[in-house]
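[step 3/7] fold_predict: job queued, chain A
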Amino acid sequence: IALRPNTRAGALTTLTLARVGVEGPWTVTAAAADRIQVTAPTRSAQIGSPVRVAGRAQAFEGHVAVEIRQNGMRAGSSLGKGFALGGGDAMAPFEATVGFRAPARATGAVLFIEPSAQDGTPIAATVVGVRFGGKAAPAERLGAESRVRFDGIGPVSILMTEAEAKHAAGIALRTSNFGACRALKPEGEPAGVTLVMSGGDRINVITVNAGTTATNQGVHIGSTQADVLAAYPTAEVRNPDEQRHWVFVRQDERAMVFEIADGKVVAYRTGVREVIEQDEICA
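[step 4/7] structure written:
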């Protein structure tokens, strides 16, 4: 059965039904949204907390809500919740880990939900049936080996709250001022990384001003402009004739900006596109 949030258009969710017995009732056995394609966990996989989730999605601002439920739970209840970031304008990969409390039943499901841009209610969902009791995904810690992405760094994601980021990082983060913004900084590695909250209580910019932390494409402070353009072929160079200029790379509602001086990267940042492309973020 194909369902849409309204009769005219919108995200499409396909329900699969099976009949219980010869004349018994029909029950929903699966749900798959056309804009949320899940690769992990797989159907009937045995999972533990935290569970790694991955796939491709397109949703408002790329936001995909993730819930873990056990069979028989009431609507609105869950064992754990989190989110992942896919694409906003087009399908894009997502990956995250979501923790959950101990279940009382052996089976359940992981729900991947596209919330409405108007009121946050679900408009599409992919549901993957799972078994509980599997090996937990390794808990990643923010550190020297963490890589910067359009949607975060290591286990910390853009749009996390301060509390969520401190929990996800797995290391001590100290709160400080970053110009007119609040910010979180690791007490050790990764050096030179700042998690910035501009105009609210959620992280919307991550800056790298020192150290060796690289992006997931291998660009770091000291890389050449040619390295940046090779790693990100769609990059836009602004004011290239000036000694100090910027290279912009966009992915839907996210972006990276590399500051170039004498042909090399001297700093860079990633985060929410409309914030990160401002000349002065925390002035």
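[step 5/7] annotate
The longest strand covers residues 122-132.
The chain has two domains: 2-132, 148-276.
exit 0
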